Amino acid sequence: MLTPELKSELTTILGAEYVCDDMESCISYSYDATPLYQAIPDGIVFPKNTEEIQRILRLAHQHHIPIIGRGSGTNLAADTVPTQGGIVMVMTRLNQIIEIDTDNLTITVQPGVLTQTIHNAVEAKQLFYPPDPSSMKISTIGGNIAEGSGGLRGLKYGTTRDYVLGLEAVLANGEVIRTGGKLYKDVAGYDLTRLLVGSEGTLAIITEATLKLIPLPETRRAMVAHYADLDTAARAVSAIISARIIPCTLEFMDQGTIQVVEDYAQIGLPRDMAAILLIEQDGPHLLVEQDITKLHQICLDSGATHIEVAQTSADGTQLMAARRNALSALARLRPTLILEDITVPRSQIAPMVRSITEISRRYDLTICTFGHAGDGNLHPTILTDARNSEEITRVEKALADMFATAIRLGGTITGEHGVGLAKAPFLEWKVGRTGIVALQGIKNALDPTGILNPGKIFTQVPTEQEGTKK
Amino acid sequence: MTSWNDVGKTLTLTLDEEELTRCMRCGFCLPACPTYRETGREAASPRGRIALMKAVHEGRMIPDSSFQKQMDFCLGCRACESDCPADVHFGHLLEQSRAAIVSHAPSPTWKKYMRKFFFHALIPHRRRLRLVGAFLALYQRSGIQRLLHRSGLSKWLMPSHLQQVDEVLPLASPYGIRERVTTERLPAIGTPLGRVALFQGCIMDVLFAKTNHNTAKVLQAAGYDVIISKSQTCCGALHAHSGEEEKARLLAQQNIKGFQGIDIDWIVSNAGGCGAHLIDYPYLLKDDPQWATAAQSFAHRIKDVSELLVDGHSLNLQPIHERVTYQDSCHLRNGMKVIKEPRTLLNTIPEIDYIELVESDRCCGSAGIYNLTHPQTSQQLLDEKMQHLHHTRAAILVTSNPGCLIQMKVGIQRAGLENHMRAVHLVDLLIESMEGDRT
Ligand SMILES: Cc1cc2nc3c(=O)[nH]c(=O)nc-3n(C[C@H](O)[C@H](O)[C@H](O)COP(=O)(O)OP(=O)(O)OC[C@H]3O[C@@H](n4cnc5c(N)ncnc54)[C@H](O)[C@@H]3O)c2cc1C
Ligand code: SF4
Ligand code: SF4
């Protein structure tokens, strides 16, 4: 509940319709897509423009009230769970595409525009915005930027961070900052654009973004290769890259995942294989044909037991759709699904996957692994039941072991989902004490009163899970 | 005894916990949800509604009138189910929530009597419905209706939406399928493919009795023996969706029993709303071991008419030289998962200019009696629908559920398109094409 004074001040800024603190609203903004976390905010606001956001932040700054920016609430780091109460600021009313600049190849959008909407808008003009998180039909671009989201096409095209050219954002004190611009080169000062990408709502509220576009590839073709054991699959991945081919997608699925996806999508995946690689190339017709032929040969040489090349781009879309649905298909097996996001150097994929298998045995858990083999970003997915606290304890131990292994192999605890609450206790493992101090210095400089998404990224109790367990 | 506390206690027991837990809050259902799109509020989204239910189920929230408002605001279109990767059956959760509200929430006495009359005393009784049909027919044909609308008196007597519905309502008929067809079995034309019993429906048989008759005719032509059985009642969908769960169960049992003695392969429905509810009888009766098996075998036999026609003998269709489009019935699509069949059938009509309707998978706002309970949202959805329809420049709009059909007729009238476009049921168009009375 908001205090009457605060509520009336917010109402003055926004109008009564856009300030809520009733029980129904508070419950419905108490979670995001992260399992096990939930906390009730004091209230929710729905601003429509930068000026309203400035006024809200000034107020929050003055009264030391936490502000939790929120897009569609699909993040997997408990980043929009208001663990310290405060006000959830829903950004979805800022949903306009401001401009598509076909001369400079940029699009300027408000943060509440859905990722898919951007894709549709630019593709209608034969342009391309590559980042494609699996959640793109509902995730907002503001959420994508704040999480530094990736996607299937990361290997060839990079992730959200590689497409953000400029931002408008409101700082904790209500001041507006503009970074970057329609510029491919810009070294005037620190790279604040990049700093805000992946800042998880802890440094500023993004109110506008200018994104880089590239020409839409002429065509795309997909193929699948089946492998009877893990190592051959991993070798194939290395062989592809050493052959100087960068496919736009190079995805990996282990046996557990294959079986579940096949149950869900029924597209003829082999239930008896240890792994499959889903490969897609895009570009001009001729080059795609050439690459697919080469890829076919490499997979054959590396010991694939079966290779299937999609005959039409529609077939290909279906193959890739199976991958897009992998996580979701897994959801049907057990009530709770915990999706992890470790990333290792490409060369360490096989050891990492083997280690995950061993960890799953050690703690007697079902873990299915799939992910972006091309860039070493794996999604070990633990299937469990939140209601079984004994099992959840084993899950927590397994997670810690997984993070430790990833770091030992030269990897990281999160590749594209963010630290949030869920991984805050492990951040120091990755960045070290000095790293934490540096990050905290930045945070304090930009948000001295600590009102922007408090409790995220940083934690008082490293290596011990915190957060309101639900 | 009624109080919000009781609603909470009931929901702790009756909400399907597995279903609630299976929701992983991914949000993939949000774009499909019409009420989320209209409001942008999480509480008006499937994920939000599930979160509210879960909070009540776990005793963290005592439901209140705004909980009820949110449950009532849901269209029950089940579009969220089609997009849910985790296979959460939102429709079940919604029915359970509404049932607890209906039986335990405080509500004015007049409302209770109204419900009792409508759901218990009227809908399930074929003869009483027929009588209403006869009165409606008299009202429409005697000139009283014309008089009311011409004189503007209807504006005083009816809420505006009802007025619009009244204006487009097809001529009700005092004669249902059983009055139209005197034999109990209509033989297949050509090699018989199987025996199907026609599920008549309640409203369908008053307002769209001709469509029922046409359904029988087209099934015969496709090679099915059609059985007109007397031992059936209303499917109970309206009851289940409105929280009248007990009555819904009784009607289900009556229907299951009614069809048990008849030698048939399938039971065919021509209303998506009925069909989707009929295949759900096993869930409705899941706690009753006595009925479980019978409900299973009943549900296995349910088919939408389009499914049987696609598998039947090809129909002898005459050309229709018009542009035609199709609006999905939500429950046919999201409940029965019948999506391709009606489109396939339309495309078998020679010379037809079929065009896909943008967002044909989105609810038209009819949603059972939603157009009467939430006229504003309903009309907003309808107006959006009409814009998309306008762009198709189709002359014929096909649908496969009576509620949708009435709503589309209202929409056409509201948009002033009545001279350019008409709405028809799929089987009626097929009959037109078979009889070749349009060129
Ligand atoms: C099924 C599923 C699949 C997914 N697949 C992928 C995937 O393939 N790749 C991937 O990278 N992620 C994936 N995700 C994670 C998630 O979708 C992304 O993190 C996404 O970017 C979140 O967008 P959102 O609009 O839901 O943001 P939210 O969850 O609402 O917010 C995310 C973060 O952004 C902040 N934020 C939101 N808007 C603003 C703003 N305007 N200014 C400042 N901060 C803001 C919030 O405070 C929060 O820290 C997946 C999630 C699910 C549930
Ligand atoms: S049934 Fe329809 S209106 Fe209700 S939550 Fe699902 S999609 Fe939304
Ligand atoms: S799509 Fe299904 S699992 Fe995801 S939030 Fe909606 S109901 Fe829950």
Topology (SSEs and partners):
The complex is a heterodimer of chains A (470) and B (439).
Chain A (H helix, E strand, L loop, with lengths): L3 H11 L4 E2 L2 H6 L14 E3 L4 H14 L3 E4 L16 E4 L6 E5 L4 E4 L5 H9 L3 E2 L12 H7 L6 H4 L6 E8 L4 E5 L11 H5 L7 E9 L1 E2 L3 E9 L2 H13 L6 E6 H11 L9 E9 L1 H17 L4 E4 L3 H12 L1 H5 L5 E4 L9 H14 L3 E7 L4 E8 L4 H20 L18 H20 L24
Parallel strand pairs in A: 2-4, 3-4
Antiparallel strand pairs in A: 1-2, 5-6, 6-10, 7-11, 8-9, 8-10, 12-14, 12-15, 13-14, 13-17, 16-18, 17-18
Chain B lengths: L3 H11 L2 H6 L11 H6 L6 H12 L7 H9 L5 H4 L7 H15 L4 H14 L3 H16 L2 H8 L1 H5 L2 H9 L8 H4 L4 E2 L7 E5 L4 H5 L1 H13 L2 E4 L9 H5 L3 H16 L5 E4 L2 H7 L2 H4 L4 H13 E3 H7 L11 E4 L3 H6 L4 H8 L5 E2 L15 H4 L1 H18 L3 E4 L2 H13 L7 E4 H10 L4
Parallel strand pairs in B: 2-3, 2-4, 4-5, 6-7, 6-8, 8-9
Antiparallel strand pairs in B: 1-3
The structure holds flavin-adenine dinucleotide and iron/sulfur cluster (SF4) (2 copies).
Class inferred from helices and paired strands of chain A: alpha+beta
Biggest sheet: strand arrangement of chain A: 15-12-14-13-17-18-16
Helix content range of the residues of chain A, please? 25-40%
Trace the largest sheet of chain B across and list its strands: 1-3-2-4-5
Report the span from N to C terminus of chain B.
63 Å
The CATH class of the largest domain in chain B is Mainly Alpha
Largest sheet of chain B: 5 strands, mixed
Q: What does the overall shape of chain A look like?
A: globular
Describe the largest sheet of chain A: 7 strands, antiparallel
What's the level 1 CATH class of the largest domain in chain A? Alpha Beta
Overall 3D shape of chain B: globular
